Amino acid sequence: MPNNQILTLEETRRLIEAGELLLIAASQELLDQLPAGQWLGGTIPYFMSEAGAEKNLQHLFVSRLSNLAQSAEIKSYSAQELEQMLADRPKNGFSYIAMPVFSEVHKAYAVEIGQYESLYDSPILGWITGKDLEAEDEQFPAVYHGPTASCLSNKAVMMHIELPESQYAEIEIYNPYEQGQGDRIQFLENDFSAAEVLINGEKQNFAHYCRANEIKGQLPLLANYSGALVNVDIERIEEDRVYFYGPVSTDQVYYWAKEITYSPNAFLDKMPKEKAQTAFNCISIYFNFQLNGVRLANYGGLFTFGEIAYLLLNQTLVLLYIQDK
Predict the structure, then answer these.
(1) Under a CB-based contact definition with an 8 Å cutoff, are residues 234 and 243 in contact?
(2) Of 49, 40, 32, nearest to 281 (Cα)?
(3) Which InterPro entries does the record match to this protein (predicted)?
(4) Which run of H or E residues covers position 5?
(5) How does DSSP assign 233-258, residue by residue?
(6) Is the pLDDT of residue 1 over 70?
(7) Edge-to-edge order in the sheet of strand 60-64
(8) CB 255 within 8 A of CB 179
């Protein structure tokens, strides 16, 4: 059986009832109908598969992990339990995580997780859950603790997977953007939004600056974290405030990404070609690069409202590889 499949509700139920270890993404309506078992779930209906990238409200994306894990544990955590979350990771293995977008735990993880010295001791990756962007407002982003079949709107759920001693997990990220050399932007608060900022050292209202420069929010802001370019994606620009899908930091200097000609090939040409165990990609990449129906190399996975590769990322492809020692 392939590691990653798009399945019907009945097919997914059978795997759960057979005791399989599963990572599952789908609409809230489908996830609510799953029985208790060894699974971690999250709301997202945007998938990558052999058939191509798509929005699919009738099926579930299922990653089968039973043949990979020597042992596994699925636990939920509040915003106040970040340290315990990190401590519970296996010594030889990795952990999947899912968190609802803009929940308390999402914001706490994004702002605080980099302060923990143990963060990089064991790989951690996953996704920020969302919903169908055309759905009614009563649908809400959620995660699911499979062992109790519980739907959670303000907790993180993690699946800690221990690997055999002969293997190890490795995370790779791919950023389709390059940092531009335009205005130098510095933020005055560590937050998911900003009003006053420094533009080339001069204090300005960021929303006014964006409108004056005809910035719509398609291109992300980029900061250089010790050689790694990290994107911050704009969610919306209001009258006097700009809101982001990830936190900005007072410790970083940001620049707009270089202009890019959006097309599937602009994303595909530079992507790693090796077959990955799991892939998490950004919903903004799905729309910006016009990927609907496009097959993405050898990856099966999800389009998300934020990607985790230790830190919270935006507009970034996150890949998990299982390597032999």
Answers:
(1) yes
(2) 49
(3) DUF6976 (IPR054249)
(4) strand 4-7
(5) -EEEE-SS-EEEEEEE-TT--EEEBP
(6) no
(7) 4-7, 60-64, 22-26, 39-43, 143-145, 150-152
(8) yes
CB 144 within 8 A of CB 27: no
Helix ranges (H only) for the chain are 9-17, 28-31, 82-87, 104-112, 206-212, 264-268, 283-288
What is the Cβ-side half-sphere exposure of residue 259, based on CA atoms within 13 angstroms? 4
The whole-angstrom separation of Cα 170 and Cα 252 is: 27
- Radius of gyration (C-alpha) of the chain in whole angstroms: 19
Taking the C-alpha atoms of residue 188 and residue 207, their distance in angstroms, rounded to an integer, is 14
Q: Which amino acid, one-letter code, is at 68?
A: L
Residue 159 and residue 95 in contact, taking contact as beta carbons nearer than 8 Å:
yes
> Would you tell me how many other CB atoms lie within 10 Å of the CB of residue 263?
14
pLDDT in tens, 14-40: 999 999 999 999 999 999 999 999 999
Neighbours of 300 (CB within 10 A): 22
DSSP string, 110-163: HHHGGG-TTGGGS-EEEEEE---TTS-TT----EEEGGGTEEESS-EEEEEEEP
Of 89, 41, 58, 32, nearest to 302 (Cα)?
41
- Helix or strand holding residue 151 (H, E): strand 150-152
Percent of the chain exceeding pLDDT 70 equals 99
186-189 long-range contacts (CB < 8 A, ≥24 apart) are 186/250, 186/252, 186/253, 186/254, 187/248, 187/249, 187/250, 187/252, 187/254, 188/250, 189/248, 189/250
Tokens coding 89: 């990771």
Per DSSP, what are the bridge partners of residue 302?
47, 280
